[in-house]
Amino acid sequence: MWFWFAVIALLCWSGSDLFSKIGCQDASDKYSHLKMVMAVGLVMGLHAAYEVFVAGVEINAGVILTYLPVSALYILSMAIGYLGLRYIELSISSPICNSSGAIVAILIFATQGIGELPPAALAAVACVCVGVVALGITEAREDPELRKARQDACNHHYAKSWIAILIPIIYCLLDALGTFADAKVLETLNEDSANVAYELTFLAVGIVCAIYVLGVKKQSLLPKQEAPKYVGAVCETAGQFAYIYALADTEHAALSAPIISAYCVASVLWSRIFLKEKLSFKHYGSILIVVAGIVILGILDI
Questions:
Q1: Which end of the chain is more exposed for a tag (fewer CB within 10 A), N or C?
Q2: 29 contacts: CB under 8 Å, gap ≥ 6
C-alpha cells in the first residue's frame, strides 16, 4: 500500500498547489491568502475532529503547546506561500517552495557536520541552491516584452519584481525551519497527536482570520471564488494524511520519499495544462536543476 499512498500524496499536494493558485491569483482580492488559510483551517479542523472522536487519537493542551512552535512555522510559511501566488507563476513558485528539503540538509550540515553523507547528497543540495538562484536571475533579467508575450497566452500578467521570487523563498526557509524543528519535537511526541495538534492550531488561526476578514474588514465570500480554495484545502489535508501512511512503511521509505518529493513536477505540469502558463527555456532549465536536486534528496531520504 505504501506505493499508492505515495502516489495519492503526490497527486493531492500537486492538486493543492493548482487549486490554491486558482483561488489566490486574483490580484484585486488582497485578502485571498487569508481566505485560503480559513479554508485550510476549517478542513483540517474537521479532520482533527475525526481523528480525536473516531480514530481515538489522544490530544491535550500540553501536546498542542509543545508542538506550537512547529505549527507556527508551518502555518506562517503556508500563509506567505498563498500570498505569493498572486505575484508569480505556479510553475516557478512550486519548485522553489519545495526546495525546503535542501535547506533542511544545510541546517543538518551546520549543526551535525557532513559526517558520512554521500557525495550525491552534497551534489543534490548544490543543484537546488544553484537552480533557485538561476530562477531568480532569469526572472530579474527577462525582457519585459518577452515576458508579456509569453504571459498573454494565460491572460494573467505578473510584474517583474524581486518580491515575487522572495516570497516563495521565505516560504521555503520557514518550511525548512519547521521541518528541522519537527524532527526534534517528534522525538518526544506521538506523530498522530502532533498532527492533530497542528490541525487544531491551523483551525484556531483560520478562525482568527475569519474574524478579521469577515468581521473587521466586512469582506464577502462568493462561492465561485471560494470553491477552489476549499478544493485545495481538501487536497492539502488528504495529501498530509497519505504522506504519513506512505512514510510509516519504513522498509519502503527510500522509495516513497522521492515519489512524493516530485509532486512539484506534477504542479508544473498542471500549471502548463490548466493555467496555460508558459515559461522560457531558461526558466525550465533552472526548474529542471531544482527538481533533480529535490528528487535526489528524496531518494537519499535526508
A1: N
A2: 35, 225
* Nearest partner of 183 among 254, 259, 104, 109, judged by Cα: 104
Write down the number of H helices and E strands in the chain: 13, 0
Could you read off the pLDDT of 10-35 as tens digits, one per residue?
A: 899 999 999 999 999 887 889 999 99
Among 5, 71, 66, smallest CA distance to 37 is for 71
Three-class SS of residue 26?
coil
What CA–CA distances, in Å, run from 251 to 50, 105, 142, 255? Answer: 28, 22, 46, 9
- The pLDDT score that the predictor gives to residue 161 is 66
Of residues 120 and 208, which shows the higher confidence score?
208
DSSP codes, 30-72: TTHHHHHHHHHHHHHHHHHHHHHHTS-----HHHHHHHHHHHH
Residue 245 has pLDDT above 60, yes or no: yes
pLDDT score at 37: 97
* Amino acid of residue 56: G
- CB of 198 within 8 A of CB of 186? no
Rounded to an integer, what distance in angstroms lies between the CA atom of residue 251 and that of residue 20? 33
